[in-house]
């Protein structure tokens, strides 16, 4: 694993762009792949596939519940459907369809949603999904993946395309710093250790991985040695890694662009609670809706910057016995 | 792969209908739960479909040449199970396990457990979406599989139904046929007193469907309608079948919800079975 560049805001690749590119590549490789969207294909980037493979692209209109059912039906007839919309409308609107049609049927449907989290920005609270990890994670048979950057997104989409069963991949609107090069390999149920450390482990997902790396640099200058783990696969969670970091560091901070209830922080706290209890301080939105604004201002207001993560690390270390 | 043999022998179909009616009442009584009314109303519709039209192979239920059936009204599971058992998809005696712990025969049909079930359903309003997905996929592959969805009237109150009906009309999936078991009663009472779905034929026509209206207990009309549905090109077809909820058992037919989801008491059970009379074959359990 090579870190390509230090985290820096506003540069890099949007995970949705990486999705669009790799989906079009996969379309050439596997004729069974079909793609569905709900009138957002130019935003979710499935339009790239649609342009290349018009026969295998289905814009189902603004009707997400039907889209999910159609995707499942296609999978029963042997297709590999990717169904996309914004995270709010791919998980919230059709939750019961995802639960009953996709997961209870163990349908081979890949739900890949973009525009998750507070980094949706100006569109505001109604479009900022901050609960999607929690509601997808609660469904049996569903796997939940939230990539940290463009290159890892490409590998993850390739991995889920050849894997069988329901999966939710959470992508984002803005450009994210590039963390990985092409040597990144995704394994279902495994996290990636980006930095090793002994004082505290920061377990992060999505954009917050970049903020966590930045926080680690700052903390290092202050003599605090932290580990940083990209837990892109939130479910199944890498229990062994969480436990080993809890044993080694004695304190954990989680960081995600999601409610602190029920998301990555919830998953890690559940794990440590039963495997090896240590302080877990959760960085995320504090059970609140978001609002309109530019991304840096929103990250600052909702407590999602590297500074907030560094503060959480110090608080977690203080709580150690 | 070989599909099972089909028949258009009307007397045989009528005899099978009586057998399935007996099983439905018996299974629900035996389980002390289940949905008799909406199973009994769809007996002729489903029996004719499975015995006279469907391509299927009980020895290989996932045969890719099969026609697909989505039981959108997944609570009509006693009817589905009785038919599938008779066709040889699973042992007949298993009907006695309906709704009991550990059974494959779940309260609502489950594709992962029951051979011959193509989609797990039960939550209403979802079946046409699933069937449309199958129809679009098989059309893409240019294979001749036909897709059938067995729907109820009450579930047409769900918004997702109309999303699916609109999309199917738009996509002109003529390899999709929806059967509407229009028995006019739902759990709480008559559909027309709750949120009426009428004029349902006009609604489907407005959504660009081919509409066929029949008496859903008349096997001759059903055979004719299914033939027309299979032959029709350029639009999906809906067969709107006028039916009676609880059909075949007067005390169920007269009940306000058509005995939607309650088991019969012992006295009603005895009365129902005596009224139905013996079928040409002994009951399976």
Write a concise keyword list for the protein shown above.
heterodimer, A: 321 residues, alpha/beta, Rossmann fold, 2 domains, seven-stranded mixed beta sheet, 13 helices, 14 strands, globular, B: 285 residues, two-stranded antiparallel sheet, 7 strands, 12% strand
- CATH level-3 fold name of the largest domain in chain A: Rossmann fold
Proportion in helices of chain A? 40-55%
| Interface with most residues | A-B, 29 and 31 residues
Shape of chain A: globular
Gyration radius over CA of chain B = 17 Å
Distance between the termini of chain A: 34 Å
Q: Please tell me the CATH architecture of chain B by its name.
A: 3-Layer(aba) Sandwich
Largest sheet of chain A: 7 strands, mixed
Q: Would you list the SSEs of chain A in sequence order as H and E?
A: EHEHHEHEHHEHEHEEEEHEEHEHEHH
The amount of beta strand of chain B, in percent, is 5-15%
Mean pLDDT of chain B, to the nearest integer, reads 97
**Average pLDDT reading of chain A:** 96
CATH class of chain B: Alpha Beta
Discrete helix count of chain B: 11
**What is the domain tally of chain A?**
2
Q: What is the count of β-strands of chain B?
A: 7
- Low-confidence region ranges of chain A: 4-10
Lateral strand order in the biggest sheet of chain A: 3-2-4-5-7-6-12
Topology:
The complex is a heterodimer of chains A (321) and B (285).
Chain A: E1 13-14, H1 15-29, E2 33-37, H2 41-44, H3 47-52, E3 57-59, H4 64-76, E4 80-86, H5 87-92, H6 95-103, E5 110-114, H7 132-137, E6 143-145, H8 150-162, E7 167-170, E8 175-176, E9 192-195, E10 200-204, H9 208-221, E11 226-230, E12 233-235, H10 239-249, E13 252-259, H11 264-275, E14 280-285, H12 295-301, H13 306-319
Parallel strand pairs in A: 2-3, 2-4, 4-5, 5-7, 6-7, 10-11, 10-13, 13-14
Antiparallel strand pairs in A: 1-8, 6-12, 9-11
Helix pairs in contact in A: 1-8, 4-6, 9-13, 10-11
Chain B: H1 10-31, H2 37-40, H3 43-52, E1 68-71, H4 77-87, H5 127-140, E2 147-152, H6 159-171, E3 176-182, E4 185-186, E5 189-190, H7 191-194, H8 200-206, E6 210-215, H9 219-231, E7 237-242, H10 250-254, H11 266-276
Parallel strand pairs in B: 1-2, 2-3, 3-7, 6-7
Antiparallel strand pairs in B: 4-5
């Amino acid at each position: 694993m090579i870190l390509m560049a230090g985290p820096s805001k506003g540069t890099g690749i949007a995970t949705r762009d990486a999705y669009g590119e790799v989906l079009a590549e996969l379309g050439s490789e596997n004729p069974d792949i079909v793609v569905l969207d709900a009138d957002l294909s130019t935003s979710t980037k499935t339009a790239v596939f649609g342009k290349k493979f018009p026969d295998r692209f289905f814009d189902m209109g603004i009707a997400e519940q039907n889209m999910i059912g159609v995707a499942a039906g296609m999978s029963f007839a042997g297709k590999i459907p990717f169904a996309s919309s914004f995270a709010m409308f791919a998980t919230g609107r059709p939750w019961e369809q995802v639960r009953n049609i996709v997961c209870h049927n163990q349908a081979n449907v890949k739900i890949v949603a973009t525009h998750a989290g507070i980094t949706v920005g100006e569109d505001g609270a109604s479009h900022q999904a901050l609960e999607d990890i929690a509601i997808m994670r609660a469904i049996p048979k569903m796997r939940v993946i939230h990539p940290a950057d463009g290159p890892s997104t490409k590998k993850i989409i390739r991995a889920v395309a050849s894997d069988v069963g329901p999966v939710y991949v959470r992508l984002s609107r803005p450009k994210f710093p590039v963390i990985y090069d092409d040597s990144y390999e995704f394994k279902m149920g495994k996290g990636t250790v980006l930095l090793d450390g002994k004082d505290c482990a920061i377990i992060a997902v999505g954009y917050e991985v970049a903020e966590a790396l930045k926080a680690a640099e700052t903390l290092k200058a202050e003599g605090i040695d932290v580990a940083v783990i990209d837990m892109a696969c939130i479910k199944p969670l890498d229990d062994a890694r969480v436990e080993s970091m809890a044993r080694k560091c004695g304190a954990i901070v989680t960081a995600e662009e999601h409610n602190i209830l029920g998301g990555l922080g919830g998953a890690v706290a559940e794990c440590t609670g039963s495997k090896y209890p240590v302080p877990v301080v959760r960085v995320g939105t504090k059970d609140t809706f978001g609002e309109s604004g530019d991304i840096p201002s929103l990250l600052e207001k909702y407590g999602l910057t590297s500074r907030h993560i560094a503060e959480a690390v110090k608080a977690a270390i203080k709580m150690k016995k | 792969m070989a599909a099972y043999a089909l028949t258009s022998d009307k007397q045989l179909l009528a005899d099978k209908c009586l057998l399935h009616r007996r099983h439905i009442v018996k299974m629900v009584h035996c389980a002390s739960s289940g949905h008799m009314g909406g199973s009994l109303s769809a007996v002729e519709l489903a029996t004719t479909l499975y015995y006279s039209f469907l391509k299927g192979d009980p020895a290989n239920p996932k045969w890719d040449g099969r026609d697909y059936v989505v039981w959108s009204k997944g609570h009509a599971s006693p009817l589905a199970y009785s038919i599938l058992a008779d066709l040889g998809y699973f042992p007949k005696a298993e009907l006695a396990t309906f709704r009991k712990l550990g059974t494959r025969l779940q309260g609502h049909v489950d594709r992962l457990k029951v051979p011959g079930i193509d989609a797990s359903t039960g939550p209403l309003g979802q079946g046409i979406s699933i069937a449309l997905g199958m129809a679009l996929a098989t059309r893409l592959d240019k294979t001749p599989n036909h897709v059938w969805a067995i729907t109820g009237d009450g579930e047409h109150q769900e918004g997702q139904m109309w999303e699916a009906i609109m999309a199917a009309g738009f996509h002109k999936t003529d390899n999709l046929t929806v059967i509407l078991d229009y028995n006019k009663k739902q759990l709480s009472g008559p559909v027309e007193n709750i949120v009426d779905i009428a004029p349902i034929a006009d609604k489907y026509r407005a959504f660009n469907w081919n509409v066929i209206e029949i008496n859903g207990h008349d096997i001759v009309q059903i055979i004719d309608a299914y033939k027309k549905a299979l032959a029709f090109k350029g639009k999906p077809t809906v067969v709107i079948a006028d039916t009676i909820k609880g059909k075949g058992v007067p005390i169920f037919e007269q009940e306000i919800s058509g005995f939607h989801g309650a088991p019969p008491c012992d006295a009603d059970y005895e009365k129902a079975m005596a009224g139905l009379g013996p079928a040409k074959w002994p009951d399976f359990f």
